[in-house]
Amino acid sequence: MDERLRSELSKQGIFTTTLEDLYNWGRKNSLWPLGFGLACCAIEMIAASMARYDLARFGAEVFRPSPRQADLMIVAGTVTKKMAPQVVRLYNQMPEPKYVIAMGACAISGGPFKQGYNVLKGIDRYIPVDVHIPGCPPRPEALIHALMTLQQKIDEQALTGARRPRHLVAEAPSEFPVPEYGEHDLEPPNNPAVWQPPTLVRSE
Amino acid sequence: MEQIKTRIEAAVPGASVEIVPNGSTAGQPSLLVDNARALAVARFLREDASLRLDYASNVTGVDWLDTVVQEKRKVKQVIDGMEREIEQTTEHKRPGYLEAVYHLYSMELKHGPIILRLRTANRTDDARVPSLTPVWRGAEFQEREAYDLFGITFEGHPDLRRILMWDEFKNYPMRKDYTAPDDYEYEPTPHDDVLEKTKRHYPRSPQQAP
């Protein structure tokens, strides 16, 4: 819609918008997180939702006790291999549109436990992550920044075309396979549709 | 420590207690108890009026691999008609075993720790020690943890299952010969073992080879 026409109309008391703006505005300003924490990052997440940092300013104060009512999964803390299937299952139980913030060094890569046998080396091996926050643990400001980044990301999405979000692509999966407990490791160790081990590109 | 050893041997007939010296700076010796009498010894340590070790603060496992022990002894030998002292090194292979270590304190008398060790016969098919959970209830979860991570079977344990890893898991991760699943990915600053993994997963291009 023409900007000048819109501004002229608003001077006359007629407010116009596009469906896309309205849809994105609604989505980005009511991101209800799933209330679950895995380790020390959860304490920072709780701090972010309390009065001092006040996540409520971004419409994300309603930590839901059920995945059915949540839009945003904040993976706050170390994901052990024993916990990973439950995390993926919770993600599968969330209705679309759904987003994931991987909070802290452990959730994005395994962090200090990366060389261990029992910690998943990043939750992005099984579910698509929208925003990664580094830090050990990240401060509440970092979580707020991640939330704002996610809001910006949602705002830039279109209703149709290549820039449309994942949940509007009919063939894109909404549920991801839950890994099984294997005899030595999780089966499979990562979801190849979501994540592949990085390949090194060396400058010659 | 010597006193405790003699008192245990007096109180529990047939018990053999060995004092294991500790060469480190802590210098904390421990008592090695034979498996058959371990439960009776533990009961004595808890009930005895001057010991009253009523609190097992820590139960852990230790993995000892098969090692070659070198012993140096001075032997007198007659060489060329002259008697000389020669240092002789003898080697013998010590088979590996697993150990369960209990740190015991007395809440009542405010002393401790007394360290108790139980040894398994070997590391594979006979990795069994008696459970001391009937004596110290708090040892239950820690014995489960030692079972989970070291594979020590505690006989007489009320509920011996894995506690940290999932039930389907087959390995014992804290054993020294355990190798973690190879789900390596790129590390920016590899070192030691990680460097070896880096070389295996990301071999250097021929131009960069030294």
Structure description:
The complex is a heterodimer of chains A (204) and B (210). Chain A has helices spanning 3-11, 19-28, 41-49, 84-93, 104-109, 140-155, and strands at 72-76, 99-103, 131-133, 180-181, 186-187. Chain A has 204 residues and is α/β, with parallel strands linked by helices. Chain A has a single domain (19-166), classed as Rossmann fold (3-Layer(aba) Sandwich). In chain A, the strands form two sheets. Chain A has a three-stranded parallel β-sheet with strand order 1-2-3. Chain A has a two-stranded antiparallel ribbon with strand order 4-5. Chain A is globular and about 70 Å long. Chain A starts with a helix and ends in a 17-residue tail after the last strand. By secondary structure, chain B is an alpha/beta fold. Helices cover 20% and strands 33% of the residues of chain B. Chain B has a five-stranded mixed β-sheet with strand order 1-2-7-6-3, with helices on one face. The longest helix of chain B is centred in the last third of the chain and has 12 residues, at 139-150. Chain B starts with a helix and ends in a 9-residue tail after the last helix. The model of chain B has no long low-confidence stretch (mean pLDDT 84). The interface between A and B is medium-sized, with 19 and 23 residues.
N-to-C CA distance of chain B: 58 Å
Count of alpha and pi helical runs of chain B: 4
Low-confidence stretches of chain A: none
Q: Quick one: biggest sheet of chain A? A: 3 strands, parallel
If you consult CATH, what is the topology of the domain at 2-64 and 97-174 in chain B? Answer: Beta Polymerase, domain 2
Contiguous runs where pLDDT drops below 50 for at least 5 residues of chain B: none
Helicity range of chain B: 10-25%
Over all CA atoms, what is the radius of gyration of chain B? 23 Å
Secondary-structure element string of chain A: HHHEHEHEHEE
Strand content of chain A: 5-15%
Strand order of the largest sheet of chain A: 1-2-3
What's the helix count of chain A? Answer: 6
